[in-house]
């Protein structure tokens, strides 16, 4: 049995409801236990809300994602057993959190998210014209819904030869302007088709950014929220005002 601390599902729509159903099934099959499970959505009538009555140690956090992460990602509260469950269509929330935190913690600096102009080179590789993030995938096909990205890819029916965090690290090492600090938040399958990100990896990235700013007065960080196959990548630049 897998034992976890606090789990937060980011979004209570169709994906959030699916993940909640799967986690409840895993609980009742004695595959997992958690201390607290929270579904984060601004809508009290979201799709997942109907599953909450009688659910084990589960509740709805009716707030925005940004407000929730701002309070929840507190080093004094989080531990190695705490997990976040991202949903496929959410924004680059962890990069947004790091940027917001940096602006609050370093008021004498300018925090800018720069567009990643240079392609990364994966089969799907798109720079979003609005937010400057680059969205990438090793798949040039339509992946099966809720794929857990096993070692043998169910689409090509052969061993999977890629890991997105490794692809991004290799690209970063040779990028124009020199490598940036790396913050890779990797979503891994945990149980019953639900992928999760370790909350402490996000906090460690924030601490790494602080150390670089204390040492050099400026910093650049490449921030990826990735699975084995897909990812959203942002670039944060911190410099004195």
Tell me about this structure:
The chain is α/β, with parallel strands linked by helices. The protein has five helices and 16 strands. A six-stranded mixed β-sheet has the order 5-4-2-6-14-13. Strands 7, 8, 9, 12, 15 and 16 form a six-stranded mixed β-sheet that branches. A two-stranded parallel ribbon has the order 1-3. The longest helix has 18 residues, at 199-216. The model has no long low-confidence stretch (mean pLDDT 95).
Give the % helix: 25-40%
Q: Unreliable stretches, pLDDT < 50, 5 or more residues? A: none
**Main β-sheet, spatial strand arrangement:** 5-4-2-6-14-13
Average of pLDDT: 95
**What string, H for helix and E for strand, traces the elements in order?**
EEHEEEHEHEEEEEHEEEHEE
- How many H/I helices? 5
Largest sheet: 6 strands, mixed
Look at the helices and sheets and give the structural class.
alpha/beta
β-strand amount: 25-35%
Question: Outline, from the CA principal axes?
Answer: globular
Distance between the termini: 51 Å
Overall number of strands: 16
Rg measurement, Å: 18 Å
Keywords:
single chain, 241 residues, alpha/beta, six-stranded mixed sheet, globular
